[in-house]
Design a protein that fits this description.
The chain is of the alpha+beta class. The protein is built from 3 helices and 5 strands; from the N terminus they run E-H-E-H-H-E-E-E. The radius of gyration is 12 Å and the shape is globular.
């Protein structure tokens, strides 16, 4: 089962230690994590269920390609890492 981990800056706002969840896609895996940490959803997804602009998700160190439906496949031994993207100048 995939492991989902969140950056410390997210953990400052919502208790969300790394977790192991069932899921064959990024969407399924994140939904399983949100079931454990419901308050996290609003930080990661917008009101349409798509990844917020300032968020980034990596599967085994590679950025996901589908930020809208989160359909990227997640092998059972993968790690999903959710981070807040930095911006500014």
């Amino acid at each position: 089962m995939p492991r989902v981990a969140f950056t410390r800056n997210l953990q400052r706002h919502v208790a969300c230690p790394p977790c192991t969840v069932a899921g064959a896609t990024v969407r399924e895996s994140l939904e399983a994590a949100f079931a454990l940490y419901p308050n996290l959803r609003g930080y990661v997804l917008d009101e349409h269920g798509t990844l917020r602009f300032h968020m980034a998700v990596f599967v085994d160190g590679e950025p996901i390609s589908d930020r809208k439906s989160l359909s990227d496949p997640v092998p059972a031994t993968s790690e999903i890492f959710v981070v807040q993207a930095l911006s500014g100048g």
